[in-house]
Amino acid sequence: KGAIRSGTGLLSMHVPCKLKEVIHLSVPEALVEVDRNEFCFSGVDNLSRFQAVGIGPGIGTSPVTAEGIRQLLSVWQGKVVLDADALNLLASNSGLLELLPKGAVLTPHPKEFDRLNKLSTFARLHQVYVVLKGAHTIIATPEGECYFNMTGNPGMAKGGAGDVLTGIIAALLASGHSPLDAAVIGVYAHGLAGDLVVEEQGMRGVRAGDIADKLGLVWKKMETYNMAKQR
Questions:
Q1: pLDDT digit string, tens, across residues 181-226
Q2: Contact, 171 vs 203, CB < 8 A?
Q3: Residues 102, 106: Cα–Cα separation, whole Å
Q4: Buried-state track 148-174, b at ≥16 Cβ within 10 A, e below 16
Q5: Is residue 185 within 8 Å of 172, Cβ to Cβ?
Q6: Could you write out the three-class secondary structure of 65-127?
Q7: How far apart (Å, rounded) are the C-alpha atoms in residues 165 and 73?
Q8: Helix extents (H) in 17-62
């Protein structure tokens, strides 16, 4: 939903066949590609038609999935954002780190990143962008720079909120933004969407789906601001 609300022209979701109907019902705008494995992610056969890949939320950490990630990273050297269980697999399978394409975007929360390394050192060593989610999300670049985001609120500390961010960044990558711009813009927009939700209903009731639903208004606000600034 984060990707759909962030400008994706055509979203494809690769899921085990057991989840096909669920995706059709929850995200009817998405095309559904079924994995060869009935129960988990085991790899993607053809990536040639895609501009960007987002992977990680909900995929689990089984050996089959670890091998699927290995196969994907072995053939895909384009734009990619990795989150959640994809990061846990990177942390527990050191060989996968060597397969990361330059400019990959990683979006861990602090517990996930504890298993990897220090922020700026890790970003420089592996030539990736690290979005460390938290009270003030930090974006570390391969050049050793760090960017701090000031949008967002504690109400967003809910399951699924980070998955929405993965979708936003994947959509921005697919639409032609550089990894740095996709990370910076995506984090800002994600936090602003959360702030709009809180304005309406307070922090306690924030859901990940609410954040995704506010993204259309966020992009409109940002476009209006940019137009006014240009004048």
A1: 999 999 999 999 999 999 999 999 999 999 999 999 999 999 987 7
A2: no
A3: 11
A4: ebebbeebbbbeebbbbbbbbbbbbbb
A5: yes
A6: HHHHHHHHHHHCCCEEEECHHHHHHHHHCHHHHCCCCCCCEECCCHHHHHCCCCHHHHHHHHC
A7: 21
A8: 20-26
